[in-house]
User: Fold this.
Amino acid sequence: MGVGRRMKKQGPPAPLDESKITMLKKRKSGSAEAPPKAASAKRRRSDADEPVTKKDAPKKKKVNAAANVAPTKPVKADKKKQSTKPKPVPVPMSDDDEDMEDLDDEEFGDLDGVSEGSMDSDDRVEGLSDLEDDDDNSVIDSDDEGHTREAMFSDDEDMSDAEERLTAANIEGLSRKLDLEQQAEEEEAEAELQEAALQTNIAGPDVFADQSQQGLAPDLQLLRQRITDTIRIMGDLKTLGQAGKSRADYIDLLLNDICTYYGYTRFLAEKLFNLFTPMEAFAFFEANETPRPVVIRTNTLRTNRRSLAQALINRGVVLEPVGKWSKVGLQVFESPVPLGATPEYLAGHYILQAASSFLPVMALAPQPNERVLDMASAPGGKTTYMSALMRNTGCVIANDASKPRAKGLIGNIHRLGCKNTVVTHMDARTAFPKALGGFDRVLLDAPCTGTGVISKDPGVKTSKNERDFLAIPHMQRQLLLAAIDSVDHASKTGGYIVYSTCSVTVEENEAVVQYVLRKRPNVKIVDTGLGDFGSPGFLSYMGKKFDAKMALTRRYFPHRENVDGFYVCKLKKTAVTPVSKTDDSASSAPAKSGSKSARSAASAASTDDDEVYDKTPIVDENGDAADFEGGAFASFEDPEDTERIARAERNRIRRKGLNPKGVLNKPKKSNSEAAPKTSESVPPTKEEENKTAASKKSTNEGKGEKKTVVKGKEDKKPVTKSKEEKKTEAKEKGEKKDKKAKKASK
Ligand SMILES: C[S@@+](CC[C@H](N)C(=O)[O-])C[C@H]1O[C@@H](n2cnc3c(N)ncnc32)[C@H](O)[C@@H]1O
Assistant:
């Protein structure tokens, strides 16, 4: 269950450092004891030759982990016996060369198995792997002379004593940690076995018996027992079920118990429960009660993973590479120092980032020199990763609709040294592609309900209601349409869109993708390149069938991969599609979104511009086509911003040689009138509300001024002034001519 998995490595790939740990222990001890584990490299090789079933793989991983603490045990020794050997037994350094070779293969040979580089079917195989390799190498080569970074990660044979001591300290810490984890796991497994044994002796307990004690809080232990009993009965309802009780009765009881035990609303519990079998749903709810492992991402713009690991080990941090699937992640087990305040952190050598949020960027695989859009980017974990993968070349537009969040984004961009990034603050639904388009790649890490990150934000359990599950997917669809329309299908290197959420519900994932497939037949789902890590997207759900390629999208769950719940879908834009092919009638937008206006807007667009699909206007929540001309997306809240913009505008007009007063006083349609509602996308903070109130005030004042200009006597002012302008211009021109003539005569 979730608890037992807590500190497991993330994802299926085997830990990278186990042979290395053993090897380093051997080095440290220099002992001459029997070396069964010294041949671990050989064993791995022979294992690789032998066919290994999928089920065996995790076992092997556990055994390897155990081997760190009990190296004298045979590799496939009984799990329980290993755990009774808490202290590491030193092993001599035989076969070092082979160990080292293996270490290298395991740790950095990411080209086999699931890796960033080998993931993408077409463009990423070379691109990303090369990139990553280069990242590592380039930084190492440029600034590692004389450094002691190899201690944990290197195949360097000439480690100094000091280095070895440092490494040993980390390894010891790690071993201790693994020992404790394993012990806890064993105890839990034992308890579960006993529980199961007990349960099998009790045929079909009466779970419907009233357990409540009046006036008292529910007994959580009894409740939990009833949950497990109900799940067991549901597994074999015919034999264990009570007479007169249907499956629906059991589900109802179970959901009520889940709500009481874990604190979910019935609405959300049911929604999440329906994604799994009862047994797996229980595992999911359990996993949401425990935090995911702490992970940091190495910023390869400033350092490399080895150097960073060594620097943090020197500070007493116990860590190891996050898994074979990433070359930049480090999982932190223990840290005596706050990870958000180390000198390395402040110098931008790493960012605290959940492992699952590496995945959308890996799927997007931005290439150097490309133009990339991160539509909803704050606080910038993914933006800065993109920037690093692009090696600070090309351009990343990092947009976010929330101003306070955009500030955090800017902070991260500066700290991590991203120089190819431009921050914008707009409502991406309407800003793109109108303001900027033609990108090689677009990432839409969409705002979502957060049902994948309940362990981080338990508030989700009670705060998300039915309305959220209509409004948020609706916004996600609008954003994804805008993302698609912002990509250049003819891009030589890209033409890709990645859609991701940190939510596990179908409404926010497969259903959104299905919707855009209907609306934009010029995109298709392609392989994310993330290998077997995670599970395929759903092909059907509650009677709805999805595109067959939906299986190429990936889902990640806390109880399966020990990462935050996540969804990743990669789309390839193949063409600019004529508007005439739109099938708006298939719209699954909420009733209010009024596909009628969308249709008329779409047909209007088709007459405007030789049927370029990408210009299909996007409708707002009310079904109204957004008024791009009004510059609606760019609503600036601060009065000083408004003033600054006005000043800039006056200067611009002056540079043209015109009189700003005359030009600006011409009656004009108010921008704010055309502004689409954005409140749903980003709920305003108090600070924002105050600012909005202030800006509303100033806008109203502005409106008032305009009215006087239009209706009042000043009406004529602009006309008079523009005449004056013309006179001034003519005068200036005359003067210039005179000057020229004088010069010529001289
Ligand atoms: C899941 S978070 C993005 C996390 C970010 N990609 C990262 O890795 O750090 C979603 C973001 O979408 C932003 N957002 C919400 N509505 C938006 C909209 N209409 N346009 C642009 N951004 C929006 C929110 O402010 C929020 O920062």
Observations:
- The two ends are 95 Å apart (CA to CA).
- Residues 161-201 form the longest helix (41 residues).
- Residues 299 and 653 are 44 Å apart (CA to CA).
- The chain is about 50% helix and 10% strand.
